């Protein structure tokens, strides 16, 4: 049995049997792990109260196969209470990680990235900038990021130039004659590289690019958490 305690966050929980739940948990230094937790017996009240999203946990687990077993857990700090749009953003972070971060692969920095952006949600109402920064950094960690600093020739992106993105290549600088409806201003690319989303045009471009890059990883199944942002 592994008695080492790891910092962790619960991303997703669903029933597995009458007495067990299946959990997707993001573990510090380990990555995303799928495990079973017993929810009945004398600890059932504790499980229901504390084994919740957005709460930093200390956990131990065991098992040599892909499916692990949660042995013990405790809260690692005060409750992190999210509400309103911050809560919606938290659900989005969780669903995105649960969907695209591979299970049982040691992508160590994902926990650090998730923890950082989760902690920012109650501190700032600039949620869109937080989500875009998280998306681009997560894609980079997973090996699907794109370079916003240099073009395909290895030259730095120029503020007054125009570019077009080509899959598996990068940004191709356009001549004046080649500028078309898909051309992107170099200044906006520089802004994204610096995670500067103050400009509305940069925000719109960043959202389009992040969705384009995430689509192959998410497949045809839409993110349920995105529906929370749609006003009735």
From TrEMBL:
GO terms for biological process: DNA recombination; double-strand break repair. Belongs to the RecO family. It holds the Pfam family RecO_N. The gene is recO. This is DNA repair protein RecO. It comes from the Bacteria. SUPFAM superfamilies: ArfGap/RecO-like zinc finger (SSF57863), Nucleic acid-binding proteins (SSF50249). Involved in DNA repair and RecF pathway recombination. Keywords: DNA damage, DNA recombination, DNA repair. Residues 1-77 form the DNA replication/recombination mediator RecO N-terminal domain. GO terms for cellular component: bacterial nucleoid.
């Amino acid at each position: 049995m592994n008695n080492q305690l790891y910092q962790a966050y619960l991303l997703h929980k669903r029933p597995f049997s009458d007495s067990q739940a299946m959990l997707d948990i993001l573990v510090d230094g380990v990555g995303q792990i799928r495990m079973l937790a017993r929810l009945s017996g004398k600890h059932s009240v504790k499980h229901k109260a504390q084994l919740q999203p957005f709460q930093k946990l200390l956990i131990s687990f065991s098992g040599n196969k892909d499916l692990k077993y949660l042995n013990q857990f405790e809260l690692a700090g005060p409750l992190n209470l999210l509400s309103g749009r911050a809560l919606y953003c938290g659900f989005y972070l969780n669903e995105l990680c649960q969907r695209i971060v591979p299970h049982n692969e040691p992508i160590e920095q994902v926990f650090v990235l998730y923890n950082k952006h989760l902690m920012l949600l109650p501190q700032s109402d600039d949620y869109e900038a937080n989500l875009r920064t998280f998306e681009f950094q997560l894609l980079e960690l997973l090996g699907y990021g794109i370079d916003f600093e240099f073009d395909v020739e290895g030259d730095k992106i120029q503020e007054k130039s125009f570019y077009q993105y080509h899959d598996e290549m990068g940004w191709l600088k356009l001549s004046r004659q080649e500028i078309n409806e898909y051309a992107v201003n170099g200044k906006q690319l520089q802004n994204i590289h610096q995670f500067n989303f103050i400009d509305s045009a940069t925000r719109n471009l960043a959202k389009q690019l992040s969705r384009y890059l995430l689509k192959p990883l998410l497949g045809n199944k839409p993110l349920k958490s995105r529906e929370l942002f749609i006003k009735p």
